[in-house]
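[Automated response] Your request has been received and processed.

Submitted sequence:
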Amino acid sequence: EELLRKRDEEISRLKEQIAALTDAADVVNKENQAFRSVYGELPPDAELTEEFKRKPKLPQQFQRAVEYCSILEAEVFAISKEAKLVRHATSEIRQHIVTQRDVFGEARHQMAAAFRAPECTEEMRGKGREVDEILAMARWRSEDVLKSLRPLERASLAIEVAAKDSKTFGGQYHNNNNNNNNGEERQEEEEEEG
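Generated structure:
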């Protein structure tokens, strides 16, 4: 549970970082567009004036922000994968315990029926009661473990869902970025044709 709690906190932290980087990237992109509208596109061999040199290199900053977002998305994906593995493992454990619990219950039922038979002695019934108490305790422990698994299952599911939300958020961000880039390319092509 401690591991899952830390993973959940890590996902929340990464989501906040992605959101902050997305906002920063949007601001940088707008500044970059404004910069180009004022200065235009310079040829590669152009000499830069001192004023131009003082301007921030917005495309590089934007690219770094995009690369950092990609790194964060990879980390979120890894966390999501681990949470999914935990959920599958707890599901298998639950199924195993349910099976054992049912076996204990069936054994108690059959023993009770056998000890009601006329040929069963009082000594056998005494031993049977001892075994029945052990089976009852085992069944109770099975129920207790099943209850203990529920918070773990809920936590792993919550982490997996949160990671998927982060991945979707990041995917939408990249799609918007690609659409913006494609729009700029189309605008440049139209200007060249004009």
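Summary generated for your ticket: The chain has one domain: 2-43+50-193. The two ends are 63 Å apart (CA to CA).
If you did not submit this request, please reply to this message.
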